[in-house]
Design brief:
Blueprint: E1 2-6, E2 23-25, H1 27-37, E3 43-46, H2 52-59, E4 64-67, H3 70-79, E5 98-104, H4 112-125, E6 126-136, E7 146-151, E8 156-162, H5 174-181, E9 185-192, E10 197-202
Parallel strand pairs: 1-9, 3-4, 3-5, 5-6
Antiparallel strand pairs: 2-8, 6-10, 7-8, 9-10
Length: 204
């Protein structure tokens, strides 16, 4: 598995003030998009947070886009006293339904056993040779609040804070993320100079 170190800088002038100063050019999303172009009938699952820009971007790549905001559901369950381990009940899709799944930094918000269960479910839901893309905050000091990874032109991604989504943050080593995804096969990983990380996994 190759790892690339990519520079990340300041937003260009004219960027909307709603965006944080954290941004980078996503190599994993570019590879994910190239993969989807080879599957004109592709179905993908976005696990949130819900973002209009991402819906518009992804809908151009696939035949059908499904969005299940697991961050919102985790917060709602937490307020009702429902343990995070029960959150997977929301992902009651038919096995092998999706060509690709986007996890964003969902793994950063779950304990190890819950991440393991989530990755096992993703392995069940993704089709043979389908891809799962995982975004990870790494050690970047973005604060504990959940962020939406907002996809803009040319695969540039901004982090938009969502302070209403109050979930704990757990920092892991890259090797731990890869181990928890097993038996999904790691294809590529990217570590950016701002500390953010991306992982591409594939169902064998």
């Amino acid at each position: 598995m190759a790892t690339s170190i990519i520079s990340a800088g300041r937003p260009s002038e004219g960027t909307s003030p709603e965006f944080e100063s954290v941004y980078y050019n996503s190599n994993a999303l570019r590879l994910f998009a190239d993969f989807l172009k080879q599957r004109p009938e592709a179905h993908i699952l976005d696990l949130g947070p819900v973002c209009g820009e991402n819906i518009r971007f992804l809908a151009q790549l696939v035949k059908r886009l499904y969005v299940c905001d697991m961050f919102f559901r985790l917060v709602r369950d937490r307020r009702k006293g429902i343990p995070p381990s029960k959150a997977l009940r929301h992902l009651d899709y038919t096995p092998q339904s999706f060509d690709g799944i986007l996890l964003w930094d969902l793994a950063d918000r779950l304990d190890d056993p819950e991440v393991g269960s989530l990755m096992d479910l993703c392995r069940t839901l993704v089709k043979p040779s389908g891809m799962v893309i995982v975004f990870d905050l790494g050690k970047h000091p973005v604060g504990p609040s959940v962020n939406t990874f907002v996809i803009c032109d040319n695969f540039r991604v901004y982090l938009r804070p969502q302070p209403h989504l109050d979930l704990p943050l757990r920092i892991r080593q890259s090797r731990d993320v890869i181990t928890m995804a097993d038996p999904l096969k790691p294809i590529k990983s990217f570590i950016y100079r701002n500390g953010l990380r991306e992982f591409l996994f594939q169902q064998e």
